[in-house]
Amino acid sequence: MLTKKNPKMAGLVLVGAATLVLAGCSMGGTTAEESTEPTTDTMESSEPMETGSAMDDPAYANLVGSACEAYDMEVPDGAGSIVGMSQDPVAVAASNNPMLTQLTAAVSGQLNPDVDLVDTLNGDEFTVFAPVDEAFEALPADTLELLQTPEGAETLETVLTYHVVPGQVAPDAIAGMHTTVQGEDVEVTGEGDSLMVNDATVLCGGVQTANATVYLIDSVLMPPSMG
């Protein structure tokens, strides 16, 4: 039976030893004059991100979550950035995000050649709960080994499709129960920067792609029937 752990976001987006670690998704404000020391157990800083023309982009409009600013600092531009992801369909956008390499491998046939959901994900509108790399790394080694076998292909597809909800749901409407593509329900609780998906924390939600709304989460979700 599959198990999961709930790793925290600490260390996800540290950019060098002196990188600022920020919290919240407030994309406005002025630059604080005080210097800050990075921490590994919080995503907070007294120095908000500077305003600029990039943040006027609609891709920033609906962001929520404690790690959005840190994500924006780690990937400030390019195809994997907040703005860059908004230009591509979701499977392509995820493949460009350096925090989603394990999810990309899982949906594209790299983890298991019998499971390739790229065309499906790119072919309609979805809400995607996207576990970051640390979430996959927290899975037990025997679980990861199983998911790569022919016998584990069905299990892998079941788990992946449990992270996908038909249609795009914005952060201000995401709280509640949602039936996934897998067929079972996922529950979103909280509001604003304090959203949870089942037991997973939303690190940065409302990330737009050309056909999906993405919520980066800190653990891999398991369908209730597999719990």
TrEMBL record:
Keywords, sorted A to Z: Signal
The answer on whether this UniProt entry bears the keyword Signal reads yes
Q: InterPro entries under this entry?
A: Adhesion/Biosynth-related (IPR050904), FAS1_dom_sf (IPR036378), FAS1_domain (IPR000782)
Question: Which SUPFAM superfamilies does the UniProt entry name for this protein?
Answer: FAS1 domain (SSF82153)
Cite the record's Polar residues compositional bias ranges. Answer: 28-45
Chain ranges of the FAS1 domain: 87-221
Q: From which domain of life does this come? A: Bacteria
- Please give one Pfam family short name: Fasciclin
Q: Which SMART domains match?
A: FAS1
Coiled coil segments of this chain: none
Positions of the UniProt region annotated as Disordered: 28-52
Signal sequence residues: 1-23
Q: What is this protein called?
A: Cell surface glycolipoprotein MPT83
Organism in which the protein naturally occurs: Agrococcus terreus
